[in-house]
Request: fold
Amino acid sequence: MQMVCGTCGSSDVAKKGVRYNATGAKQKFFCHNCKRWFVDDDGFKRMRHKPNDITRALDEYADGASLKKVQKRLLQHDGIKVTRWTIRNWVVKYSHLLKKPRRDLAYQRLRAASMSAKNT
Ligand SMILES: [Zn+2]
Reply:
């Protein structure tokens, strides 16, 4: 996984120590391109996919689209190729970014999906 600078998008970044705060340790990075420090704080910068793509996919899932449908849409509209398993992981990892009612919907659907997977 390639780390990129959150300010300029450069991948010319170096790990430089760790910063501690209330929620634990955070890796600090230095960008050689724009000469800025930044912290890996939201988990997204490490991802290959844009936060917008992920939250929209989660939104669609909460709306009732199947994982298969969300997967197909990502590929056809955005040229993003992911597995259904990846989308499922996004739901687990990032659904806190959705508004509460939608988040609950996404969780419900995920639970239902894993129940039916067990029964078959
Ligand atoms: Zn930079």
